[in-house]
């Protein structure tokens, strides 16, 4: 049997991953719900004063988005590992980077993208001026794919371990620092009325780095976890 | 020159040769490093001139600067060892990676502590979210993350390879973190010691600093060799040469 083309593998993997996530709506709804709940804790904990909230809103939305992505990644490879699909993926006669990349894209489309779409609403609830809500959305849109890819490296390395969750946080959160700094920074810059193009470009550059090299690292991490 | 390096690389890649190398090097590396450290610290802390604006509080640089540079170098070394371990699957690189982590993490913690103690009289605060301090804090987190991952995986080879991937990703991350926090906030002074060009520190203060730096780095190296030697013996405990070693030791 000849090996299938990479395009066919890509399409089949993407369809499989999307179908799998689509059929368990909890995987889509729960990160979103978590995002909303965490953001709504800030006014309760700090103070409902609009001036203060607008000041902390960029950071609050960003920290919540970051945690939502990270927590959603914990189970990214676990189900595939339990069912044995992961071993098949690693032993298949194609480069494992392709199905891994499809998995990451599917995960981002149904987790990161909804977070970005709902972020302006949460920003508005935290009293951010309407004029900066588009910047908030673009920053989350550019930042979450990086969070997904980098977090997936950690998820790949911890897939076989019992205490995955907290270990994943310890590994991944320090790696999230640049995205958090620039992501929340863009929104604060917009809040000050300064141009944001340069910082968005930096976020984009980090995204390009993560998307180009990340899937290779994730595939390698899965191989290491499989005992290769 | 290149041939010698290549031969060294291949010889040190063999656990048995590495063990003999440790046995030959450690007996003088440990005393030399301790002596250098003692000379540098006593010279710097007692005899070096008082700084004009900061008074005696500046003397903490004789601990702070060697520790900070050691922590950074250690992490970069882990990244290099990680790359070698992943690409060439060299066992000794895995061993070195594991051996580098604990002392490096300790140095990062020392750097943060001494920096805080110096910051209080000079900046008026123990802690500030300054670029360099934040980078060092993240570096400490990265060290702890690597150690946590190694602890969590039972199989030593798998643990080492997982840590190797994390170290390589971490090194790329450290560079981006540095620029990101620099953009965020900067209060720390720039580098005083320069490899190229004139250092902005007087020779009477520079020499004790360089000596204590050399001492601490060598002590780090000695610590890494001791840890690596133990790890090699534990990994190779079923091989013939380790058995013979133990038998000779007992006889």
TrEMBL record, chain A:
<comment type="similarity">
    <text>Belongs to the CcmB/CycW/HelB family.</text>
</comment>
<keyword id="KW-0813">Transport</keyword>
<keyword id="KW-1133">Transmembrane helix</keyword>
<feature type="transmembrane region" description="Helical">
    <location>
        <begin position="138"/>
        <end position="160"/>
    </location>
</feature>
<feature type="transmembrane region" description="Helical">
    <location>
        <begin position="51"/>
        <end position="73"/>
    </location>
</feature>
<keyword id="KW-0997">Cell inner membrane</keyword>
<dbReference type="Pfam" id="PF03379">
    <property type="entry name" value="CcmB"/>
</dbReference>
<feature type="transmembrane region" description="Helical">
    <location>
        <begin position="199"/>
        <end position="222"/>
    </location>
</feature>
<keyword id="KW-0201">Cytochrome c-type biogenesis</keyword>
<keyword id="KW-0472">Membrane</keyword>
<dbReference type="InterPro" id="IPR003544">
    <property type="entry name" value="Cyt_c_biogenesis_CcmB"/>
</dbReference>
<feature type="transmembrane region" description="Helical">
    <location>
        <begin position="20"/>
        <end position="45"/>
    </location>
</feature>
<keyword id="KW-1003">Cell membrane</keyword>
<keyword id="KW-0812">Transmembrane</keyword>
<comment type="function">
    <text>Required for the export of heme to the periplasm for the biogenesis of c-type cytochromes.</text>
</comment>
<dbReference type="InterPro" id="IPR026031">
    <property type="entry name" value="Cyt_c_CcmB_bac"/>
</dbReference>
<feature type="transmembrane region" description="Helical">
    <location>
        <begin position="166"/>
        <end position="187"/>
    </location>
</feature>
<protein>
    <recommendedName>
        <fullName>Heme exporter protein B</fullName>
    </recommendedName>
</protein>
<feature type="transmembrane region" description="Helical">
    <location>
        <begin position="108"/>
        <end position="126"/>
    </location>
</feature>
TrEMBL record, chain B:
<keyword id="KW-0472">Membrane</keyword>
<comment type="function">
    <text>Required for the export of heme to the periplasm for the biogenesis of c-type cytochromes.</text>
</comment>
<feature type="transmembrane region" description="Helical">
    <location>
        <begin position="21"/>
        <end position="48"/>
    </location>
</feature>
<comment type="similarity">
    <text>Belongs to the CcmC/CycZ/HelC family.</text>
</comment>
<feature type="domain" description="Cytochrome c assembly protein">
    <location>
        <begin position="16"/>
        <end position="188"/>
    </location>
</feature>
<dbReference type="InterPro" id="IPR045062">
    <property type="entry name" value="Cyt_c_biogenesis_CcsA/CcmC"/>
</dbReference>
<keyword id="KW-0201">Cytochrome c-type biogenesis</keyword>
<keyword id="KW-0812">Transmembrane</keyword>
<dbReference type="Pfam" id="PF01578">
    <property type="entry name" value="Cytochrom_C_asm"/>
</dbReference>
<keyword id="KW-0813">Transport</keyword>
<dbReference type="InterPro" id="IPR003557">
    <property type="entry name" value="Cyt_c_biogenesis_CcmC"/>
</dbReference>
<feature type="transmembrane region" description="Helical">
    <location>
        <begin position="60"/>
        <end position="88"/>
    </location>
</feature>
<feature type="transmembrane region" description="Helical">
    <location>
        <begin position="100"/>
        <end position="119"/>
    </location>
</feature>
<feature type="transmembrane region" description="Helical">
    <location>
        <begin position="207"/>
        <end position="228"/>
    </location>
</feature>
<keyword id="KW-1003">Cell membrane</keyword>
<keyword id="KW-0997">Cell inner membrane</keyword>
<dbReference type="InterPro" id="IPR002541">
    <property type="entry name" value="Cyt_c_assembly"/>
</dbReference>
<protein>
    <recommendedName>
        <fullName>Heme exporter protein C</fullName>
    </recommendedName>
</protein>
<keyword id="KW-1133">Transmembrane helix</keyword>
<feature type="transmembrane region" description="Helical">
    <location>
        <begin position="131"/>
        <end position="150"/>
    </location>
</feature>
<feature type="transmembrane region" description="Helical">
    <location>
        <begin position="162"/>
        <end position="181"/>
    </location>
</feature>
């Amino acid at each position: 049997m000849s090996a299938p083309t990479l395009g066919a593998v890509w399409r089949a993997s993407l369809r499989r991953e999307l179908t799998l996530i689509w059929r368990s709506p909890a995987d889509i709804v729960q990160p979103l719900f978590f995002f909303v709940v965490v953001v709504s804790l800030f006014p309760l904990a700090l103070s409902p004063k609009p001036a203060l909230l607008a000041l902390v809103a960029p950071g609050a939305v960003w920290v919540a988005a970051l945690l939502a992505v990270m927590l959603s990644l914990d189970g990214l490879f676990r189900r595939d590992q339990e069912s044995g699909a992961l071993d098949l993926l690693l032993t298949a006669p194609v480069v494992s980077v392709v199905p891994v990349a499809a998995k990451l894209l599917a995960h981002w489309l149904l987790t990161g993208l909804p977070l970005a779409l709902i972020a302006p609403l949460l920003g508005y609830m935290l009293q951010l001026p309407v004029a900066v809500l588009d910047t908030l959305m673009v920053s989350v849109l550019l930042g979450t794919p990086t969070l997904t890819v980098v977090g997936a490296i950690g998820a790949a390395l911890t897939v076989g371990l019992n205490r995955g969750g907290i270990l994943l946080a310890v590994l991944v959160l320090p790696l999230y620092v640049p995205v958090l700094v620039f992501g929340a920074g863009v929104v604060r810059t917009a809040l000050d009325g300064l141009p944001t193009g340069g910082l968005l470009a930096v976020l984009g550059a980090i995204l390009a780095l993560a998307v180009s090299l990340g899937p290779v690292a994730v595939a390698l991490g899965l191989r290491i976890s499989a005992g290769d | 020159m290149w041939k010698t390096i290549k031969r060294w690389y291949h010889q040190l890649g063999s656990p048995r040769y590495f063990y003999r190398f440790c046995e030959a090097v450690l007996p003088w590396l440990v005393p030399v490093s301790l002596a250098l450290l003692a000379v540098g610290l006593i010279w710097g802390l007692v005899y070096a001139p008082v700084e004009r604006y900061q008074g005696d509080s500046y003397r903490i640089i004789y601990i702070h600067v060697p520790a900070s540079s050691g922590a950074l170098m250690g992490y970069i070394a882990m990244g290099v060892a990680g790359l070698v371990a992943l690409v060439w699957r060299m066992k000794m690189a895995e061993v070195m990676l594991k051996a580098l982590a604990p002392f490096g993490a300790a140095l990062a913690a020392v750097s943060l502590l001494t920096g805080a103690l110096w910051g209080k009289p000079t900046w008026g605060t123990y802690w500030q979210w300054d670029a360099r301090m934040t980078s060092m804090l993240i570096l400490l987190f990265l060290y702890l993350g690597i150690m946590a991952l190694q602890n969590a995986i039972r199989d030593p080879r798998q643990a080492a390879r997982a840590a190797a991937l994390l170290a390589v990703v971490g090194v790329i991350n450290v560079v981006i973190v540095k620029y990101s926090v620099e953009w965020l906030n900067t209060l720390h002074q720039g580098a005083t010691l320069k490899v190229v060009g004139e250092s902005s520190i007087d020779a009477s203060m520079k020499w004790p600093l360089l000596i204590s730096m050399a001492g601490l780095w060598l002590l780090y190296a000695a610590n890494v060799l001791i840890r690596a030697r133990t790890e090699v013996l534990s990994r190779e405990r079923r091989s013939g040469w380790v058995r013979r070693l133990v038998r000779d030791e007992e006889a």
